[in-house]
Amino acid sequence: MKRFSIAVLPGDGIGPEVIAQAVRVLEAVGERFDLGFDFATYPIGATGVAVANDPLPVATRNAVVRSDAVLLGAVGDPALDDAPRELRPETGLLALRKLLKVYANLRPVTVRPALLAASPLKADRLHGVDVLVVRELTGGLYYGEPRGRNGTSGVNTLVYTTAEIERVARIAFTAARERKKLVTSVDKANVLEVSQLWRETVTNVAREYPDIRLEHTYVDTAAMRLVSEPASLDVVLTENMFGDILSDEAAVLAGSLGLLPSASLGSGRGLFEPVHGSAPPLAGRDIANPIGAIATVALLLRHGLRLAEPADAVDEAIGAALDAGARTRDIALPGEASIGTVDMGDRIVEYVFSEALEGLA
Q1: In a domain? residue 71
Q2: Measured CA distances, 14 to 101, 208, 290, 318 (Å)
Q3: Any idea what DSSP says for residue 124?
Q4: Residues 86, 126 within the same domain
Q5: Per-10-residue mean pLDDT, the chain, length 361
Q6: CA torsion, points 170, 173, 177, 178, in degrees to nearest 10?
Q7: 16 domain residue, yes or no
Q8: Which positions are catalytic?
Q9: Residue 355 sits in a domain of what CATH number?
Q10: Which of 10, 64, 229, 325 is buried deepest, with most CB atoms within 10 A?
Q11: Are 261 and 315 in contact (CB under 8 A)?
């Protein structure tokens, strides 16, 4: 039996609830495919501040670098919105990304036929939509120096280097080879020098991938295309802040932010987390959608542990549950019955095993 160590960081708000279901699905996958997963849980975000006065405690830092993959819930707590930067939950997340040396965030957005009615967009615009946003994670306004506040003024600095752009671009072009062979690079090259560097560098990298078609578009046009003609997009390559915004906008296509997973990849182990935030108002009520966290498990298996067949099994189990009518509150139509977080986890675990039995039939 192959064994893998998984550092589990449930985080804040609904994080512990949805990650509990993701862990259950991983355990089911392990039983079906004869894989061993060793889970160890550590604090991050507001939980880290509560137990260690640090949004990324030393024990968590030490654990994640020893693990085979990191499964994260969400961070954020309104009670710390006015806290010093070093105590903000988001500071722990940024530090975690830096510690793991992840630089490319993959955010797939696939519109499932069973959920066409859950999106506010017209169904005829959603057929065939399968977008992968590749977001750069280590540069841009979130990290650039100088930064800070001085009385009535504030400053953040947008910085990118050629090397940072090249490495994330190669992730996008490589991904496109397994898809529709189209990369749409997003920038604001008409007004930003950094975007001009981005466009020039991506164009140069594209020469290494003659089988992939490259198109450039401004970020405002990309935002419009996501909702007006999303099926025209395949791999969307973007810098950090643009990717943060566009990938959240893309959640509209799928029907709910609660459905979407992400994988952050780099030079070492990967960091895997659902796209949604901690959603404090939903915490503890058994109503949060765990599918984003469970779909994140599929990315963990596929990209983190190189286990394609178990990853497929998770994706198929999610699809089977949705096809059978399982709906949490965020994706249920008016008048349609909904189920809770744990019940949705139960359904998907059941399908992990029932799909296996069907394969033996």
Answers
A1: yes
A2: 26, 43, 9, 20
A3: G
A4: no
A5: 96 98 98 97 98 97 97 96 94 94 95 91 91 95 91 95 98 96 98 98 98 98 96 97 93 92 93 95 97 98 96 96 96 94 98 69 42
A6: 80
A7: yes
A8: 142, 188, 220, 244, 248
A9: 3.40.718.10
A10: 10
A11: no
Question: Which of 70, 94, 28 is closest to 269 using CA atoms?
Answer: 70
Q: Are residues 126 and 247 in the same domain?
A: yes
* 357 CB-near residues (< 8 Å, 6+ apart): none
- Tokens 């036929």 map to which residue? 113
Q: How many domains does the chain have?
A: 2
Q: What token pair was written down for 33?
A: 């495919």
- The phi, psi pair for 303, rounded to 5°, reads -95, -30
**Domain end residue (candidates: 222, 254, 286):** 254
Q: Which two tokens stand for residue 54?
A: 């640090």
- Type of residue found at 155: V
Q: Given 224, 254, 284, which residue is the final one in a domain?
A: 254
Range of the domain at 163: 120-254
DSSP 8-class letter at 301? I
C-alpha to C-alpha distance for 342 and 21, rounded to whole angstroms = 7
Same domain, 124 and 243: yes
77 with 14: CB under 8 angstroms?
no
Looking at the structure, tell me whether residues 146 and 224 fall in a common domain.
yes
* Positions of E strands within 15-166: 35-41, 69-74, 102-110, 130-136, 148-150, 153-155
Q: Do the strands 235-238 and 130-136 form a parallel or antiparallel pair, or are they unpaired?
A: parallel
If asked whether residues 97 and 160 sit together in one domain, one would say no
